Amino acid sequence: MSQTVRNLQFAADKKWVLPETFKNALRVLNEKTTADWVKASISELVIDQSWTELNDRFYKTLSFGTGGIRGRTIGKIVTKAETGTPTPLGRPQYPAVGTNTMNFFNISRATQGLVNYVKKNFTPVEPNQKAKIVIGHDTRHYSREFAEFTAQLVADMGADAYLFESERSTPETSFAIRHLEAQAGVVITASHNPSHDNGFKVYYEDGAQVVEPHASGIITEVNAITSELILEPALDKGTIHGVGREIDEAYTKKVIGLVLDPTLVAQQSQSLKIVFSPLHGTGAKLVPRILKDLGFNFSLVAEQTEPDGRFPTVLSPNPENAEAMALGMNQAIREGADIVVATDPDADRMGAAAKIETGEMVLLNGNQIGSLMAWYRTKKHFELGYITKENASHAALIKTFVTTDLQKAIAKHFGVKLVETLTGFKYIGEKLRIYTAVVIDHKKMSERDWRELSEGAKRDLLLKFSTYYIFGGEESYGYSANEYARDKDANAAVAMLCEVAAYAKSVGKTLITLLDDIYADLGYFSEKLGQLTLEGAEGAMKIQKVLASFDIQPPTGFGSEKILKVEDYAKQDLVDVDGKTMPKEKMFIFHLESGSRIAVRGSGTEPKVKFYMFGQTLPTLGTKFTITELAEAKAATTLYLDSLWETVKADAQLRMD
Hints:
Strand content: 15-25%
Strand order of the largest sheet: 1-5-4-2-3-6
Largest sheet: 6 strands, mixed
Number of strands: 21
Shape: globular
Distance between the termini: 40 Å
Number of helices: 22
Structural class: alpha/beta
Helix content: 40-55%
Number of domains: 4
């Protein structure tokens, strides 16, 4: 028994490390294939008595959820063994050691499980045909190494890997899966998380993140893998194909095609001034080209344009944060720009700010951005004659349950269907697959036949036989408006929001005053997101404790408000507007007597419990808000939500203690 093992045993006996921590660390130390630097890293943490760090790294094996895996790839404490020879950007040579961290061990588990599932469910249509898996990655630490490692594993296991030549956005990878007629796809990314994180996001052949039954099937296969090494490498290995420019061209054409009124854009494109930032991520690949091809007058935030996994100019590369948008907003003020748009590292989320009368820039939240696009695109579809009163019931806006109810009001105002899904764009992607499949089945065409149709022909068929997707999104800054990519698409969102800004400019408005016009017509809707961040092994247990408490001891009210109805999405059999039974998910929605509601759920990507609070103030039936009335509605709703959060937060604290 080594000294490291003896010291670990002593720490376990003293309860300084959890039993699972001891078990998992011991297994890694005893594995014959474990590299010397990995053993040295564990030894350092033991010698330094870094018990909290050890627990965080080893208290469990990183879970493969329905979307993939995500976790720290750089520890809170970086050992000398991990540091090795730092890269030019100062990144440690090796990713963090641990069964609960993002490293080659967990990438291998995820890849092997995915390939095993794909091969079991793949039926070749040609002799010697192999399954295809597309692999993309963002600009994060280790993303390229993880992507290349994944591609090699895929090939060694007997499938063909289609690896992007360099960083690309998540929605482009989603598009590429169907474009290349692949069976699955992987994106190495942790989206908008801090720089120390990375992840492995999984897509199936429909281009969307996996849902049931594939999700459970893949999870089962991943959980069966216990070694980084392939147990049975394929005799007939696959090939690694490099992809890039051809996919870029096809995808970019689709994005540009989302603009509904090219004439309007051309008329306003030079007078409308735009500032764009990719926040050191993949948006730099195609967004400047998209804006240029559309003729927009734009400038780049130079300090944030180069790919850099450190994200050195921001605390976190999240475009919903004012801090991340600050450089772009300051540049916009200097240049007299109308809007700022920014994309996160894998370009699936977009944040924005808009100019107000004083020349200052004001941040828009995800609900406001989505609502502006939903309103404009629905209005424009009617003006262009694509949607009419006769077929409007076959057109839909789609949103998640935790996204603003303003979009419900927009759908009702125009007479189109409003579809609500569970949190996660994979459920919107699933809807797009279902709506498309109805037409494909009815017309007895192939998926390839469908993809080769013009957008107008697709729209007409969906409006006649199924449901046509106008626009969809979620409050967490994800949006899309077409099924060519079945995930949220920030590249597309930039083009779409700039078109809305061009429209606003054409009628003498800004995005802010246009939004106020919508509020005046439909009512003022506002939301507040409260979050409890609970990191590490101890935090994970507290998150489970808080969520379980709503089952064990459900609230009867919040403050002076009684709860009229509770929706428990883990236990109740709930159906959506299409009559489809929704999957079970740990989420509660409490409907209050004031007409407001509160949604509670654990984040699927971050160590957080999230509390979504919804407030609204409506004008008198048949009237619109005056300027004064709207100001009063805003103030009253904001005050109400602030007070409600204090009550909810106090309740959550009691549940956590």
